[in-house]
Amino acid sequence: MTRPLKTTVLISGTGSNLQALIDAAAAPDHGARIVVVISDRPEVKALERAAAAGIPTEVVSWRASSGREQFTTAVCDAAERNGARAMILAGFMRILAPVAMERFPAAIINTHPALLPAFPGAHAVPQALAHGVKLTGVTIHFVDEEVDHGPIIYQEAVAVDPGDTEDELQARIQAAEHRVYPMVVDAFCRGRLDVDGRMVNWRESL
Ligand code: GRF
User: Fold this and answer.
1) Which entry of 11, 76, 83, 198 is 20 to 30 Å from 63 by CA?
2) Architecture in CATH for domain 5-202
3) What pLDDT is attached to residue 205?
């Protein structure tokens, strides 16, 4: 194949999805190469995972920033400085300002632990449980100006079992994320995704 696409992964915490992306990108034919991991806070587990894999890291402090626009510009600058052409959000708990979409058009992807448009936001798993849904899951989507809203690339359903705790349901959703997110990132990096308004068309079947 052609050379892998240089990407950055944006994280805020544990980084189990980052680990899945790192592991997948180690394969010689994977579409993505992670050139830098960017965090909005220091001393999180995901930064240790990146360092252990020999991937450069940068911290763009949200707390030290003067607002969303300035923070987003600093994140984009860090990504570009390291040669990244796309941004992969993996448990990144900050909302990017529109300048990110201008600088990385149709090149910012997020994973969300629910079947969007149900349960956007930071509490999708407890909200799904509280609502009594029987199916929830994973949505991988392009990022636009609204929270958890951009064109949907891929979804996988996860059943809610009777008596599920939040931790149990979250663990099954994350297991699905770890399986499908690297696959979707690979497809994106290979140019297999066509975006037409809200519709994302895959060039070949999975
Ligand atoms: C993931 O479940 C993701 O969907 C959500 O935050 C979680 C991050 O987990 N946005 P991790 O840091 O990748 O372990």
Assistant:
1) 83
2) 3-Layer(aba) Sandwich (3.40)
3) 56
